[in-house]
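Researcher: Let's do a round of design. I'm pasting the structure tokens now; please hold your answer until I've finished.
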């Protein structure tokens, strides 16, 4: 029989790997070209593209987590914590995908050269941001 701590650790590990896999699919395959090109645009058009992307992205994460929850019902994921983790992830994803706020953070942290001059640097910092929040979101989901 598993302890509560062991069960929580297993929930965390499965949520993290599931969300990471779903992130890769949703951020690179599900996101449309229009969303990718438009999500950082000024005004409502940019926000519409951004929120459309984050909406389909979050649904992809939810579906992947639901499959895991259905396949392993003994994990006892709590719907409220799953919702909280997905909302946390969606908000931080939308914020970063507007680009200007994430670049401003990179500049403030002394990473402007990496963002601007290293080939793929902006993408790498973007993905590191997302993966860090995936980790924290999985931690919330595992409660």
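Researcher: That's everything. Go ahead.
Model: Designed sequence:
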């Amino acid at each position: 029989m598993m302890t509560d701590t062991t069960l929580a650790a297993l929930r965390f590990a499965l949520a993290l790997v599931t969300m990471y896999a779903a992130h890769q699919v949703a951020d690179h395959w599900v996101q449309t070209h229009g969303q990718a090109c438009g999500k950082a645009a000024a005004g409502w058009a940019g926000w519409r593209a951004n929120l459309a992307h984050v909406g389909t992205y979050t649904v992809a994460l939810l579906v992947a987590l639901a499959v895991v929850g259905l396949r392993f019902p003994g994990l006892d994921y709590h719907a409220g914590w799953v919702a909280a983790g997905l909302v946390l992830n969606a908000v931080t994803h939308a914020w970063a995908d507007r680009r200007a706020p994430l670049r401003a953070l990179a500049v403030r942290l002394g990473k402007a050269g990496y963002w601007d001059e290293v080939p793929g640097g902006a993408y790498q910092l973007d993905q590191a941001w997302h993966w860090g929040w995936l980790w924290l979101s999985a931690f919330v989901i595992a409660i």
